[in-house]
Structure formats: structure tokens, C-alpha cells
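Anyone opening a protein record will find just a pair of labelled lines. With that in mind, the following record should read easily:
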Amino acid sequence: MNILLTGVAGFIGFHTANALLDRGDTVIGLDNLNAYYDPTLKEARLKLLRKREGFTFIHGDILDRPVLADAMKGVDRVCHLAALAGVRYAFDHPAEYIDTNIRGFFHVLDEVRVQNVPGLIYASSSSVYGGNTKMPLAESDRTDDQLSLYGQNKKDNELLAHTFHHLYGTHVTGLRFFTVYGPWGRPDMALFLFTDAILHDRPIRIFGEGKMQRDFTFIDDIVAGLVASIDKNYPEEIFNLGCGQTEELMSYVDAIENACGKEGKKEYLPMQPGDVVRTESDLTKARAMLGFEPKTKIKDGIPRFVEWYREYYEL
């Protein structure tokens, strides 16, 4: 297939593009290479992608409608991963999140309608579950108690996609990602921050007094679910993509310390605004409809990140 992938220089976008190219798809990658985090990491990912046959890069923004329209011409699918990610950054930059994550998403969705693209697969988030404390979290559960602007953005995306499907018959699949980690990961996420701190003898800042629990999902498993969603192209669906089990945050820290070969100094801090205590994905629907079966546990996935980190930063 010929696939437009927005946010191609991002963590998930980079890995997804490689998987699609590996199987012979053509990928048009669109990214504005913004400075939300270190652009040199995005450039390094992009440098590898540019070497791949079947890959074309367009330096552009989803808020630039003419550029987006040109990039989308003749594609079989749009895989929309471009967004301002993360709960905490949104706390101080709400206007940027509304522009990129809501107005930008509308541009993508509406252009899919205008060009009659056969299918749109887009990134949602486990953050949409907000204050829901029922575990595990299923796609049919309530998502009307938002605790973060980011979660609200992603819920708005799901509602807008539903409306476009209802009005125009647009094929839309939303994927609720649960705490994705792995090589080439984002510098603002816990795995990167903790590894960087441990290897440079700085304290680890552990929020929620270390009592939080997360459904940590390795990047290869997320990509498998994404590719399956692109292929299935259901008329309208929402899927959880997680590991399907919850780990204590301190177990995660232990695994990082083991992979780094040293213990980190720890600074325990209160919960940050917008965070939740626990996430756990119910994968019943994704298993049945996507054949989704996560394979990587943190004991195997974390060492792969630490190995990449040492190599990338020449430690």
C-alpha cells in the first residue's frame, strides 16, 4: 500500500514506518520536526528512514492544509501519529495542544474525507480513561471524567472521528496506546529520564511516591497492533493497545537499575497534576479483532532500551 504517516520522525512513527517499509509498503512521511523535545533525536531517526527504499519525507505541518493535501494525494491509508504528546507539557502549553491535537486532527480527518481515502488509523491514548478506576480498562468503559488536557484532546479526536464516520462514512480506527517504551523513545518519558539519571549519577525523580502502576507496552507490540489496524481497516473501531498487565513503578525502576548495572539515587515526590494512579488494558477486543498479542515484558524490553541508549550516546 501507499501510506501517509504523520509524525514520522516521532518515536512510534519511526518504528511504524520501518515496519511498513520492511514489508514492501510505500511510506510518505510528514513531520514538522518541532522542538517539543530534542530535534536532533528526530533528525537521527529521519536519517535512517531516508536511506530506505520506498520512503519519501515531507517537512511540513498538519496545520498547513495545502501541504497536507498534497502529501495525501493517491494514498491508500493515512496513519496519523502527529501530535503534541504527554500529560505534563500540556499543563503549561494548553493553546499549543488545542491547535495541534484538535485543529490539526480535524485537518487530517477532513482531508481524508475530501480525498476519499479508504481508511484513517489514528493515535488515541489510555489517557482518555481519565478518572475511571475500573480495572482492567475496556473500550466500552466510560471516558467522560477527563483529568488532563491531553486526555481531553484525544477523547475529542475520538468523538470527531465518530461524527465523520456517521456523516460521511469515513473509515476510522482509533488506538488507545498504553505507556509505550523502547529504543529511540522520547526523552520526556520515565524510561529515558531514569536511565539518563542513573548512568550520570543524578537522582531519579519518582512521582506519586513510587506507588503508581502502569501497563508498560513495548514498541514492537504497539507497531504490530498499528499494522494490523491498517490492514483490517474496520469502518469504525476503537482498540486498546497495551501489554495487558500492570507493573508497579518501582518494579520498572528495579528493571532499569538492573539493565544499567547500578542503583539510582531516588527522590520521591507527590503525584503530578493530570496523572492517574493505575492503568491496565483489557485486550479482549484487540485480540479478537486484530489478532493482537503482546509478547515483550519489561524484563526483556528495558534492557533493549538501555542498550540503545548506551550506543546512541556512546557511553
